[in-house]
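Reviewers of the previous submission asked for a worked example of the structure-prediction workflow described in the proposal, so we include one complete record here. The input consisted solely of the amino acid sequence. No template or homolog information was supplied to the procedure at any stage.
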Amino acid sequence: MSATANEQAMEIVLITGMSGSGKSVALHALEDAGFYCVDNLPPELLLPFVELELKHRAQRLAIAMDVRSATSLPQVPRQLDVLRARGIVVKPLFLDATTDTLVRRYSETRRKHPLSQAAGRALGHSSGQVDLDERRALVEAIELERSLLEALREQAHVIDSSMIRAAQLQSYVKGLVSTPGEQLTLVFESFAFKRGVPTDADFMFDVRMLPNPHYAPALKNLTGQDQPVIDFLGEQADVQRMLRQISRFLDSWLPDLARDNRSYVTVAIGCTGGQHRSVYLVEQLVQRFSAHWATLKRHREMDARTL
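From that input alone, the workflow returned the following structure tokens.
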């Protein structure tokens, strides 16, 4: 079927991911951004629902699906191909978090995982803790959910919500939907190893061996966005060598990734505190690549303090 002008104008963000990873937060962010949002849509209704909204001349839809539709989730990738063939821009988004993070969130909210076999029994006690048997059952449910959603994760842009606040997640989601859907977007992210490694990175570079401005008293409280730190790191031969090598690596492989129909590629740069070296390198890489690719930047630790 050939695409109509209205179909070409339609944009769909499909939100999937782990239960407790922030799908509701992402959906609210998209509603604020002007999307018509539907939660827990059964996969069988995806194509009929889009047809209905096309008749209503809708242009921006956000649809959330979760593991409660596990038996029909395998058909979603094919449905997305059908929509793309009609000229509709489809942006799959997968929200993830570490198992420990998900266990803690379920313990704090005392909710039952949708795949839990402990029917009718809420997880957690007044102390906010789960006992050993409950934790084991919850971990098993989470790992089962991961396996059921694996195919969707592989075809989506992944955001790891383990170490970020709700306001950060909302900001990241709004940033993603602002990028062109028909071309590859580079996401550069700085982070601190001491707070954990992001699981959403396609490529990760450890820069902790580079000279650290933290040990210069005049630079300690500044960041990689401040001119004195920029000047300091700009004069370090090893820092510039790292910058050149990361740039050459990306220059070499990005065309292949684009030909593979990748929508997003996340490049994570990690240092000890996520304040100086990783921030500086992310800023420099964004400057270098924004002329030829759509780019986004995230500073996980700094964003947590400002959003």
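Strands lie at 11-17, 36-38, 60-64, 89-96, 157-160, 185-192, 203-206, 264-271, 294-299. We consider this example representative of the routine output the project will generate in years two and three.
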